């Protein structure tokens, strides 16, 4: 069967690295915008009360600007109004180890966490072609060949000598 030539979905991403917050707190904001259209995601973040919301809004606007720039630069047909947030991830960055004074001359260690925020946007109407069900069914799975085990000959007892 001939497969029709469908271009893969173009994704445009932006990153904000080494942000001074824990990934858990950034994920609270990122989870609210996953899958939303870009315009609706910006409105949601703009009215959020979380401290990381302005940083995430800046990353989202950067991803939109990347899409706009690359569509003009490479001659792609990307409609910026038709973009949606495909992925929004907060990965853990390096930790800063700090020491807090404790009673009786001791010291307690604590860690200041950092996060790397990655936002990816893609065009809504375009999707990649799914795997053809007919061609997937005709492909035989590659199995292991059965190898015949060699039989090991049992050792024979030495023949007894005849008495004369």
Topology:
Elements: E1 11-19, H1 23-33, H2 38-46, H3 53-74, E2 83-92, E3 96-101, E4 107-112, E5 115-123, H4 133-138
Antiparallel strand pairs: 1-5, 2-5, 3-4
Can you put this structure into words, describing what you see?
29% of the residues lie in helices and 24% in strands. It is flat and about 110 Å long. It is α+β, with helices and mostly antiparallel strands and 164 residues long. The protein contains 4 helices and 5 strands, in the order βαααββββα. The strands form 2 sheets. The chain has a 3-stranded antiparallel sheet with strand order 1-5-2. It has a two-stranded antiparallel ribbon with strand order 3-4. The longest helix is centred in the middle third of the chain and has 22 residues, at 53-74. The termini are far apart. Helix 2 runs antiparallel to helix 3 (53-74).
Question: What's this entry about, in short?
Answer:
With 164 residues, this protein is of the alpha+beta class.
Descriptive keywords:
164 residues; three-stranded antiparallel beta sheet; single chain; 4 helices; alpha+beta
């Amino acid at each position: 069967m001939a497969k029709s030539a469908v271009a893969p979905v173009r994704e445009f991403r932006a990153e904000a690295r080494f942000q001074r917050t824990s990934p858990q707190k950034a994920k609270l904001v990122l989870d609210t915008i996953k899958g939303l259209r870009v315009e609706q995601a910006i409105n949601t973040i703009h009215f959020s009360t979380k401290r990381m919301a302005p940083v995430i809004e800046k990353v989202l606007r950067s991803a939109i600007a990347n899409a706009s720039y690359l569509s003009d630069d490479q001659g792609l047909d990307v409609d910026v109004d038709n973009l949606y947030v495909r992925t929004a991830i907060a990965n853990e960055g390096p930790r800063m180890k700090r020491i807090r004074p404790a009673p009786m001359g001791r010291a307690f260690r604590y860690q200041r966490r950092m996060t790397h925020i990655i936002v990816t946007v893609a065009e809504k109407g375009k999707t990649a072609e799914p795997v053809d069900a007919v061609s997937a069914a005709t492909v035989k799975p590659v199995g292991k060949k059965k190898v015949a085990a060699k039989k090991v000959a049992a050792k024979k007892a030495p023949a007894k000598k005849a008495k004369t």
